[in-house]
Design goal:
Layout (H helix, E strand, L loop, with lengths): L30 H13 L3 H5 L11 H15 L6 H11 L7 H10 L7 H29 L5 H19 L7 H17 L12 H7 L7 E6 L5 H15 L4 E5 L4 H13 L3 H6 L4 H14 L4 E4 L6 H15 L3 E5 L14 H19 L3 E6 L3 H4 L15 H5 L2 E6 L19 E9 L5 E8 L4 E4 H15 L8 E4 L11 E7 L2 E6 L13 E2 L9
Parallel strand pairs: 1-5, 1-6, 2-3, 2-4, 4-5
Antiparallel strand pairs: 6-7, 7-8, 8-9, 10-11, 11-12, 12-13
Helix pairs in contact: 1-3, 1-5, 1-6, 3-4, 6-7, 10-11, 14-15
Length: 540
Amino acid sequence: MEQQSSRFQNRPRRPAVPVTDPTGKLPPRDTDLEEAVLGALMIEKDAYMNVCDILTPESFYDPANQKIYEAVSQLGLSQRPIDMLTVVEQLRANGSLEEVGGPLKITQLTSNIYSAANVEYHAKIVAQKYLARRLISYATNIETKAFDEGNDIDDLLQEAEALLFDISQNQIKREVTQIDPVINQAIEQIQNAANSSSGLSGLQTGYTDLDRMTSGWQNSDLIIIAARPAMGKTAFVLSMAKEMTVTYSIPVAIFTLEMANVQLVKRLLSNVASLEGEKIKSGQLSNEEWDRLNACLKNIYSAPLYLDETPGLSITELRTKARRLVREHGVKMIMIDYLQLMNAGGLKLGSREQEVSTISRSLKALAKELNIPIIALSQLNRSTETREDKRPVLSDLRESGAIEQDADIVCFIHRPEYYTKSGEDAQGNDIRGLAELIVAKHRSGAVGDVKLRFVSKYAKFENWQEGYNAVRNAIGDAGESKKMEFQSKMNSASLGGGEPSVASKFSTGGTNFSFASDPLPGADPNPDIMPDSPSDTVPF
């Protein structure tokens, strides 16, 4: 290597540090390069800034060099000058000056270096040799455990994956980019959104109000959807996955840690064919329902929806499978049900909170690496149950505040009718079937509430306005051929400017509906449509 020839003139090559690995071989190392880096750091004031994100004290093979670099790092982090004298003083303060060879050793390091021009290149070589030593150490450790038949092979595989994942994550570094190519990329995305029929820059979900607020799910975003049990988290992502894969042909992968694949598909069939979940489970379907199911199956077959039911999925397993799904099947989005059932895969962490923080941080890193949105469901703690106001807030996220920090978007699912017996809110409004998707955090956009309709018997979420339009269309098409009974009454409540609105009831097909007629001036243009009985949810 010609670059190194001048720095070792008239200097005998020092013997290698007599340390071997368990196989008896000397590990990869170059102590001369280590000393060249240390000498350069003490003769060039800005050299440390060029290598501080490449090297750590453990990167050096020689223990004495580790201590010297540790002293250099302490000076650099405290923004003090780094030279021969200050390093000697720092080593003396650390109590390690004599261990490294005293002031004479530091003098020798600087006297044999004439330039710091190649310090970054040399530092990268030192770092690569340290990485090789780590791989050898981990591989040797795994090999030793693999020979021990008392070890569980599945646990050993997870440990190996976790160690390799830890190494690879530490190696991911992006270079600084001048703004011009980034501007071109941004303009291209804006033009694509302008030319899109949906007008969205991200992935379309089928929920129009949500898409309007987020402009679709954006690449590299980590989206957390959280709720208390029985709010319908799984039903929501399944409804969304159905819309994205069947309606828009967007490849989606679902990792279901809580539910078997067959159970998930049964819920999907109930959703698509508008068949009650209990009937799907029991198989007690009428001929008409069998026909409806068979007619809907053609829409699901060949859909780009990929399922994985691995229980206790580790972040390393997810990363491996996600890469394969993106590479082989062109998957555009990943959903995880749910985050708290994942594990860190062999990483030794002090607490469950630290483990969840690691998982959350790794999911965000994976979304950026694959450049796709990742949706992770999350549980909420019980604090909502103790409050009079049951609407979730960010502090209700369970087990770790890092989830809120790492996520680009945090949404809560809230169904107020779950907490009432009358089906009405405090103002007397009918809230049966109402589901609110609360966008509580949006790193690059607005926050707010999105109204959805939850059809419990089909475990299905729909756009709020769809049910309203379905009833209005049914009324318009009925004419004289359909028997509909209307009972009109004046609403005692005042709307907008104080004028009353007209509310009506009708029945068709054995189901009773209530709706508000065309609003009077000043009235709400989007009146609620709800079934007369809470037990008979409208199957819109």
